[in-house]
Structure formats: structure tokens, C-alpha cells
Amino acid sequence: xxKKINWFDVFLAFVIATMFSLLAFANSRNNARYIxxxxxxxxxxxxxxxxxxxxxxxIVQTFPRDSKISNSELDLKRIEEKLxxxxxxxxxxxxxxxxxKLHAEVTQKKALARVMSSNGSYYLxxxxxxxxxxxxFSAHVPVVYGELKESNKEIFAQLxxxxxxxxxxxxxxxxxxxxGDQSVVFTVRHFDYLIEFGHLREIEKKFDNYKAFVxxxxxxxxxxxxxxxxxxxxxxxxxxx
Length: 241
What we know:
Helices cover 32% and strands 24% of the residues. It is an alpha/beta fold.
């Protein structure tokens, strides 16, 4: 008995085989394509610790040689790891487009404070991790004095982010002193008083109290005579001359 040929199945198999052949050809052709250009994009950041030229130099250093490099020779994961290892880079993504251009999108770390200590000076990022100073850019951030204990790093990072993300606090607070018991004291712009913030609890509430105090006291001629503004008690602000 002669079996009837299903021409639809034959056609479908032919289409699938053709698609795989075209994909294999395109992939082979793409791998053989040379990298023609490197484009670096620095994503939005308050700081400018690195330049496009610096990022490009790091990328080129990962290439196996100085002459033309094909796509098949690229190790995109290794390039990203190399970029992410840089002290000023928080995250990077690297890819190659169909025209042979290598793209690198880089997010810089944010410096939220500058520590001044006997062991030198350095920045703290949004996780309260150390960042080195830079020849490219100086961040206008609060200066920190005193020793931060490792156990308090997470809550201190929350404090720094709260200050940084609030335009009023970001402008007003110029210095942070960490006491031995890990309570903190602020210095502020425009006034000579110290802010006794206390331990890092109820951070938002204490800052709301301070902003309310400034709002109601801005027309008070006595505000310039205060030497201490105490925020330790979350139900009230205590001022002394």
C-alpha cells in the first residue's frame, strides 16, 4: 500500500530547516564581524567621578590584542566584571549591536558623605561603603567625623540617603559627628547651633520635627542666638542658647 505524502509536513520541515540554516549563517557572520566602535553612556548621576574615556580604556584593556577584535573574541561578562570592579562604578551593562558597535552603559556610585579621619579621607556611598577620593570631581556632601561601627553601617546609610534625597536637608546639613555611643550631632549652614540628633532611631520623624522647627522659627530673631537644637525627644524640639 502506497502511503500518501503529507506535503504540509514536508513544507513545514523545509521551513524549519531553512530558518535554522539562516540563523546559523547570521550567527556565524555576526561572530566574524569586527568591533568598529565603542560607545560609552554614563547614566544619570549626581557625581562625575569617571569619564567616558576612562571607561573605554578599561574596556580596551580586556581585549586580547591591540588590533581588530571580532565578536567571537569578546567576553562581555569579563568586560562587565572588570568595569564593576572599579571603585567608582556601581553597575554596568555591555552589549554589541548588529553594526558591530560595542555599547557600555555605566552607572556611577553616589558619594553621600566624606569622612575625615586620622587614617585619611574618603567618601561613603549610598550603602555607607568606602569610596576613594577622585581627581575628576569633588562632591559637595556632609563631612563625617568619628568612628562608625560596622553594626551601625546599614542604619547610617539610611540616614545619609534620607539627607541626600531631601533638598532642604541636603543643602542645610554640612557636617555629621559620630559620638562614641554612635549617637550623632549635625552642623548646619547659615546657623551656628548644633543639632543633637541622638541615636539613629525614628530618623524621618526627627527630621520632620526639625523642618517644622525651622519653618516656624525662620521669622524668630532668636533663632540666631541658639547654640543647641535637641531632636532626641521625638515629641518636641528643645532649644538652648
